[in-house]
Design a protein that fits this description.
mainly beta, three-stranded mixed sheet, disordered N terminus
Length: about 425
């Protein structure tokens, strides 16, 4: 237990609780003390147990031997949420911490504040202050435009899990569309698996040696804005971001002992994004595209995802629905792209039984159109009663060439089992 506590206190997530988040908490506690009668609150959340099982030893598929890694690991996670609001509902407060204790990877034993924010609602606009999470995007296989929050890579290699982002957010709602403005005074570094972790590059990423293009480092003030609106059956999202890029460049280096490592470097970027979705009966057409300028430290590039989803409603005269998904992913950097998918196609099936247990599953195949490398993934979940949910995820990687980004996941085929208890 002392081992776990020490890892949490030394984790990047705990150290990243800046003065901004502490200030937010002090304001909240002061407000509660001086106005105790106007708030009503509730506590909810979940605790989970996870097991990850890998089919191979990493040393069997890699030129580098990973003596500290194993073929399985277990972990427990706690995600409580406290929500409170005034009697009028015009002011709300949300606090969602996250803690995971992992048996194998010190970096995966970590603490984060996913959300810690106030929200004040007016007639046509609102202002939020604190640590928040936002999601942008419409496609399934990649979320190119989703840039506000940093990826929590030790939680999910696919980048679905995100760290909380300190910010001030102003949202304006008009008949002709919604506008969001973001001011982000503190940058969150990406988390990476440690020496004992799986689903990582052959070399360990040493976050202690992190470099920044900006002299302000993690204190650089980023900003973003987004416009969204519905036009009949069309959904539109336009976004712009300026600040420290969430995706670091990784360069080879040496640690203090002369061991080879990877050093992350974060640069200032400009990014424009576009989201489009059209609902046409049982068909859904989807598009995401970004144009990113890496300034003096990289090239400009364009990346896009184009998708189509068709749903078979009432499959075989049952309550179940089956979605057929096809998406094309393109990055004009080609082989110079750091993305796992630069000219790939994804084919998937999404099954929703629409039963009282909320049973659903997603099966997909991603393949590179040039090399034939790719992976197969499965995600499925089901509730048991009112408080328990079980999920299973599986990933199989194949034909990854040595000079491709996907080659870092060769031999990392695995199954992830997780059991949640909601309270």
């Amino acid at each position: 237990m002392n081992f776990f506590i020490t890892d949490v206190l030394n984790s990047e997530g705990f150290r990243a609780l800046s003065r901004f988040s502490v200030f937010s908490l002090i304001i909240f506690l002061s407000f509660i003390v001086f106005t105790p009668r106007v708030y009503s609150g509730e506590l909810s959340g979940n605790v989970s147990v996870e097991a990850r099982l890998f089919t191979e030893s990493p040393s069997s598929t890699s030129p580098i031997t990973y003596d500290s890694q194993d073929r399985h690991n277990t972990s427990v996670a706690l995600t409580p949420e406290y929500y409170s609001e005034t009697s009028s509902g015009a002011v709300t407060f949300t606090f969602t911490p996250f803690l995971r204790l992992d048996s194998a990877d010190n970096n995966r034993t970590h603490f984060d504040v996913r959300e810690l924010f106030f929200l004040k609602v007016f007639d046509e606009w609102e202002i939020g202050f604190g640590i928040r999470k936002f999601f942008w995007g419409v496609t399934e296989s990649a979320h190119l435009v989703d840039i506000i929050n940093q990826v929590d890579l030790v939680e999910s290699s696919g980048g679905e899990d995100k760290l909380g982002q300190p910010m001030i957010n102003i949202a304006v709602e008009k008949d002709f569309g919604n506008f969001d403005f973001f001011l982000m005074p503190f940058f969150r570094e990406r988390t990476f698996p440690g020496e004992g972790g799986r689903l990582r590059p052959p070399l360990v990423v040493d976050a202690d040696l992190t470099e920044y293009q900006s002299k302000s480092e993690e204190q650089h003030v980023d900003f973003a804005l987004r416009y969204s609106h519905y036009f009949g059956n069309w959904e539109l999202g336009l976004s712009y971001f300026y600040g420290t890029g969430r995706e670091p460049l990784l360069r080879a280096g040496l640690d203090d002992l002369g061991n080879p490592i990877l050093i992350p470097r974060y640069i200032i970027i400009n990014q424009g994004g576009l989201e489009l979705q059209r609902n046409a009966g049982d068909f859904i057409f989807k598009f995401e595209g970004i144009y990113r300028d890496l300034g003096s430290e990289g090239e400009e590039f364009f990346s896009t995802v184009l998708g189509l989803e068709y749903t078979l409603v009432g499959l075989f005269e049952s309550d179940a629905d089956l979605g057929l998904i096809a998406e094309w992913l393109y990055d004009d950097r080609g082989e110079n792209s750091q993305s796992l998918m630069e000219d790939d196609i994804m084919i998937g099936l999404r099954l929703a039984l629409n039963d009282v247990s909320g049973t659903e599953a997603l099966l997909g195949v991603v393949e590179d159109l040039d090399s034939g490398s790719g992976f197969i993934f499965l995600e499925s979940s089901r509730r048991f009663g009112d408080n328990i949910r079980a999920s299973i995820e599986a990933s199989i990687y194949s034909n990854a060439l040595r000079d491709e980004p996907l080659s870092t996941l060769a031999g990392e085929d695995h199954i992830r089992l997780e059991l949640f208890y909601f309270f």
